[in-house]
Design brief:
Helix content is about 45%, strand content about 15%. It has helices at about 5-20, 25-35, 35-45, 105-115, 135-145, 150-165, 180-190, 225-240, 270-289, and strands at about 65-70, 80-85, 90-95, 120-125, 170-175, 195-200, 220-225, 245-250. The N and C termini lie far apart (about 45 Å).
């Protein structure tokens, strides 16, 4: 497909999945771009995340210990935990999912962090509404109905409890993608000095007036082609800098929103993903050890 038309399709899909665009209108417009209904369906499949995509770190990797269910006593969130076998008091990184909820891709991301020496804790933020449904459209609907204030409070409490857990080194960071990237900024605002580091991947940002409340150092990854997120992200970064906060902004030219998600054939950008991941691990090693 012509690169310009492909980019139009990617941006249209982003509007559909993030701005509540009507499904019929979305498909009609995608059909105009693709040339036929059949071609539109095929194109959508290459842009959307595929639940059948292979994991980078397999679920049964023998170097790791993983479990699913309760994350820590006293906090109601359930989810997925991964760490290296034999790890002694590792730092914690909370992994916040996209707007599709806790899925196998995010579990894979947690395992990657575990191999890099962290206790990776991936909460299902849809726990209060019964957990992440199998259907991703239903998951997006459920995410949109969450009480965001309550969700942030639950995540902040989770961070505090994990830091006090004697199985960790007492330091905790948070990383999130898309909806989770936005969530990282909100937890940084709410947690203050209770958070040790935060990494946000292409997440819309809070009101700039909240920047003064942030205490943790932040690393912000921005997809260069992601104009939707840029509208709130640029003022947020400027406000953090004006307030004297420790913020590192990294832009990835030519990369689309969700460039880290290797289950999306057309949006995944391996070069950008690898570069951002290396920066993320170095950032967490610097602030959590």
């Amino acid at each position: 497909m012509n690169p310009d038309r492909l980019q139009q399709a990617i941006e249209l899909y982003d509007r559909f999945t993030h701005e509540g665009m009507d499904r019929r209108d979305f498909f009609a417009r995608m059909t105009l771009i693709a040339g036929s209904a059949a071609a539109a369906s095929s194109l959508i499949a290459t842009i959307a995340a595929s639940p059948a995509a292979a994991a980078i770190v397999p679920a049964g990797d023998k170097r790791l210990v993983t479990r699913e269910g309760e994350l820590i006593a006293g906090n109601p969130l359930k989810g997925y935990v991964a760490l290296r076998k034999g790890a002694v008091r590792p730092p914690v990184v909370v992994v916040v999912h996209e707007n599709r909820g806790l899925n196998d891709h995010i579990r894979d991301v947690a395992r990657r962090l575990a191999l890099d020496g962290f206790m990776a804790v991936a909460p299902d933020m849809l726990t209060p509404s019964g957990g992440t449904p199998a259907n991703e459209d239903a998951a997006r609907d459920a995410i949109g109905k969450l009480d965001l204030g309550q969700s942030v409070a639950l995540a902040t409490d989770l961070v505090e409890r994990l830091k006090k857990d004697k199985k960790t080194n007492g330091k905790a960071g948070i990383v999130g993608f898309c909806w989770g990237g936005a969530f990282v900024n909100r937890v940084a605002v709410a947690a203050g000095s209770g958070l040790d580091a935060g990494v946000s991947y292409y997440g819309p940002a809070p009101d700039p007036s909240e920047a003064s409340k942030v205490q943790a150092p932040l690393l912000i990854h921005h997809a260069g082609l992601d104009q939707r997120v840029a509208q709130t992200l640029f003022p947020w970064v400027a406000a953090l800098r004006a307030a004297g906060k420790a913020v590192t902004y990294q832009a990835y030219d030519g990369a689309n929103h969700a460039f880290n998600n290797d289950t999306s054939a057309e949006r995944y950008n391996k070069e950008a993903a690898d570069l951002a991941w290396g920066r993320t691990i170095r950032f967490f090693n610097r602030h959590l050890r």
